[in-house]
Amino acid sequence: MRAEDAGSRASGGTAELLLELRGVTKSFPNGTVALNGLDLAVGRHEFLCVLGPSGCGKSTALRLIAGLAGASDGQLAWPNGGSAGDIGFVFQEPTLMPWATVFDNVHLPLRLQGRGRRRAEDVVMQALALVGLADFAGAYPRELSGGMKMRVSIARALVTRPRLLLMDEPFAAVDEITRIRLNHDLLDLWRGQGWTVVFVTHSVYEAVFLAARVVVMSARPGRIVAELEIGEPYPRDDTFRLSESYLRYCGRASAALQQATETG
């Protein structure tokens, strides 16, 4: 692990960059400075996890990348072409429409693009098949478990076939067994579909299992203060979770997170 000073840049670890944040600052009208000089480069097809103490600006950074908010200063660039239109976003809560079927919840982004139900049917069913819910297209959210609801939320993010998938603590509200299963399924999807993933989590153990690279943000105002390359091959399974190398990586990430919690 190497520490990063405020003027350094977290590298995407690949020859081809997808996205780069350069000196990004975000201030709110009430005077709160959520981010200050955030530098982050994300490589194409990378699985990047973002760790940091509560309130450090992790979710704010995702919202800036998604185009849901604007930076107060700094630059967000797509060096090799791209835009916020190439992004899918999975929030911490599934935020499903309770009156709509699974199919209609997943269809929503396409409907907002003007694609009717009939035209979108094949694409929606493909997205549901990716998350193992093709047989539940006619079900309602109240009939689903917490893990299944999150799968619907992931399918909804995937239905537009994004290049970049942003995930803001998506598995925080599910039980540990479901969380582990979803971790495995997400890695299988990522490897099979070739997206880039930026995944925010509070869990060191989840970050180390999923990521090719973990970046750690300081306490507010947020910036990157450390990064850790997880030099373990994919696919990863429970053998990795039980390995000495996994425990070493978790220890190093925990130490970096503890230091970041004390750093403002």
Mean pLDDT: 89
Which parts are unreliable, with pLDDT below 50 for 5 consecutive residues or more? 1-14
CATH level-3 fold name of one domain: Rossmann fold
The tally of beta strands, per DSSP, is: 10
Shape: globular
In spatial order, strands of the major sheet run 1-10-9-4-8-7-6
What share of the residues lie within helices?
25-40%
What order do the SSEs take from the amino end to the carboxyl end, as H and E?
EEEEHEEHHHEHEHEEHH
Output the structural class: alpha/beta
Distance between the termini: 20 Å
Largest sheet: 7 strands, mixed
Give me the Rg, rounded: 18 Å
Residue fraction in strands: 15-25%
Features:
single chain, 264 residues, alpha/beta, Rossmann fold, seven-stranded mixed sheet, three-stranded antiparallel sheet, disordered N terminus
Description of the molecule:
Residues 1-14 have low confidence and may be disordered. The protein has 264 residues and is of the alpha/beta class. The chain has helices spanning 58-66, 102-112, 117-130, 146-158, 176-193, 204-210, 238-241, 244-261, and strands spanning 2-3, 17-27, 33-43, 47-51, 73-77, 87-90, 164-168, 196-200, 213-217, 224-229. The chain has a seven-stranded mixed sheet, sandwiched between helices. A three-stranded antiparallel sheet has the order 3-2-5, with helices on one face. It is globular, with a radius of gyration of 18 Å. The protein is built from eight helices and ten strands. Helix 2 (102-112) packs across helix 3, helix 2 (102-112) runs parallel beside helix 4 and helix 6 (204-210) crosses helix 8. The protein has a domain at 1-82 and 200-264: 3-Layer(aba) Sandwich (Rossmann fold), CATH 3.40.50.
